[in-house]
Amino acid sequence: MPTFTLTLQFDYTIQDSVSVGDMAYAVVAVANSGFNVNQQDITKLGIITSINRGSNTITVETSLYAAQIPTPKPHPDRPEVLFVLFSKDNCHDFKSMLGYFGKFKFKNNSTEFAELFNITVDAFESSK
Question: Taking the CB of residue 48, how many other CB atoms lie within 10 A of it?
């Protein structure tokens, strides 16, 4: 299958955790309505090959033709947007604990309500 270069231009700052080698996905969603989409509508775009945070662009190597890439359609009552997601390579980005001691402190300095979604802890028995 032929591969193509797809450049995505964003209006907002690219998230810091996005990195080269991540898999990019896209789905068309209705603006300001939450993220209510069918999983089957999410399209795998390809591997992220470069990120330019200065111009807010991501380059993706894809095997999709232009007609296969999700495209928002103009609706006066419910404007659509292209929502781009990414995932890490679990084998490549998997990290485990190194060392003997870790101390963490989570603090919310905001006056607004905030909810911490997930915390993961890795522990192992040290040598005896």
Answer: 19
Q: Report in angstroms the alpha-carbon separations of 1 from 23, 63, 64.
A: 18, 7, 9
- Tokens found for residue 52: 């330019």
**Measured between alpha carbons, how far is residue 118 from residues 16, 84, 109, 121, 127 in Å?**
18, 22, 18, 10, 29
Q: Tens of pLDDT along 83-126? A: 899 998 766 555 555 555 667 787 778 888 878 778 877 666 66
Q: What is the pLDDT of residues 52-66, one digit of tens each?
A: 999 999 999 999 998
Distance CA 45, CA 68 (A): 9
DSSP at 65 = -
Give the start-to-end residue ranges of the domains of the chain: 4-90
* Pairing of β 4-9 and β 57-62: antiparallel
What is d(CA 73, CA 75) in angstroms, rounded to the nearest whole number? 6
Does the pLDDT of residue 41 top 80, yes or no?
yes
